[in-house]
Amino acid sequence: MTLADHIRRFLRGPQGQQLISRARRELAKPQNRRRIMQVVARVRRRR
């Protein structure tokens, strides 16, 4: 089983679903979304 298979399996399980749901809640917060966009912009400038 490859690493990608292990990750997919984890994400389909209860712990993975909890993690996904928490990430979605955090992304819904404007300050977190702004911080992520700043990091993305910084990474894009480096290329």
Concise description?
The protein is mostly helical and 47 residues long.
Q: Would you kindly provide a written description of the structure presented here, covering whatever features stand out?
A:
By secondary structure, this protein is mostly helical. It is 87% helix and 0% strand. α1 packs across α2.
List keywords for this structure.
single chain; 47 residues; mainly alpha
Write the layout of secondary structure elements.
Elements: H1 3-12, H2 14-27, H3 30-46
What number is the mean pLDDT? 95
How does the major sheet shape up?
Answer: none
Element order: H for helix, E for strand: HHH
Q: Helical element count?
A: 3
Distance between the termini: 34 Å
- Shape call: flat
Let me know the number of strands: 0
Radius of gyration computed on alpha carbons: 15 Å
Strand % is: under 5%
Secondary structure: helix percent = over 70%
Low-confidence stretches: none
- Which structural class do the helices and strands define? mainly alpha
